[in-house]
Amino acid sequence: MIFGMPIVQVLLFGFALSTEIKNTKIAVFDQDKTQESAQLLEKINQNLYFDIAENIRSDKEFEQVFKTGEKKVILNIPRGFSKNINNAEKTDIQLIVDGIDINLANQITNFLENIATDFYTKKQLQTTNQMVIKPEIRMLYNPQLKGAPNFVPGVMAMILLIVCVMMTAISIVKEKETGTMEILLVSPMKPAFIIISKAVPYLFLSLLILVSILILSVTLLELPIHGSLFLLFAVSFVYITVSLLLGILISIFTQTQQQAMLISLLGMMLPTLLLSGFMFPIENMPIPLQVISNIIPAKWYYLMIKNIMIKGTGLFIIWKELLVLLGMMGVLFVVAIKKFKIRLE
């Protein structure tokens, strides 16, 4: 389970949960039916993002198109489309988009607008000799607009946190349930050594999980690592240690393995998904949630891993985030030692 869950999650987030739009089915209402409108439709259909699946005969069919949920957008080309293009006049087309999924709707709209604008600009260059300013757009770090560069660092932060916390959360509480805690308490070991001894085996397991995630990312998701591997593992070591200490704290304060598991999954998964910047931009959240996100270790790790893996930056860029995680590690270690009970109640 420890090694299977990260592999499954990486594959799911890398392939099944991708935000890329591919082969989006659209319907077309071509009222112009000219060579220019046909060329525009051909340009759209040849694009990998869209697939013209239906031709509408009248505007009365608009609402019916969206009922099945298969088509996400209707492209309405009005009469006079060809005439306006040839006369270099203002040319309008209408996009009617299924707005239930607002993020997908915005993506579809932006892509279609870019295709239409490019088509119109090239037509004007063919018919006139006027100087036209055309911006050249380059997508740095992710030119193909793949979802992997965003998902892989986020999945790494989520998996390592949940797995590490869950594994260590049941370690000490299991000793309480099985009655072997008394043996540990009467031993000459200090609380600090007991905590370290519980965390070290899971530390090595977590590093193996990290290696497996990186191998899957590079081989299956085709996401190269541009930065230093040593720095990546050093940052991950600190993050894993913070996660293990969180699990130790949960284990100290709970009495049963069920309680520890429940707190680990619900208490760690939801904040990591919602407040780490992985699924939703933190800048768009209300100010109180932005402040709360600063105590989420996954947020800082996610920022560092994105910079190392995708941008190839070094320590001089991520040192602030690393200091935050080191501070969390120190505080959690001190609290764990102070709260570790040397007597059973």
Describe this protein with a few key phrases.
alpha/beta; 4-stranded mixed beta sheet; single chain; elongated; 345 residues; 63% helix; abc type-2 transporter like fold; 2 domains
Description:
63% of the residues lie in helices and 6% in strands. The chain is of the alpha/beta class. It has a four-stranded mixed sheet. Helix 1 (4-16) runs antiparallel to helix 6 (148-178). The longest helix has 31 residues, at 148-178. The two termini are 33 Å apart. The mean pLDDT is 81.
What's the total helix number? 13
Instruction: Spell out the helices and strands N to C.
Output: HEHEHEHEHHHHHHHHH
Shape: elongated
Q: Report the structural category.
A: alpha/beta
Name the beta content range: 5-15%
- Percent of residues in helices comes to 55-70%
For the sheet with most strands, the description reads:
4 strands, mixed
What Rg is obtained from the alpha carbons, in whole angstroms?
27 Å
Mean pLDDT: 81
Unreliable stretches: none
Distance between the termini: 33 Å
Order of neighbouring strands in the sheet with most strands: 2-1-3-4
Number of domains: 2
Strand segment count: 4
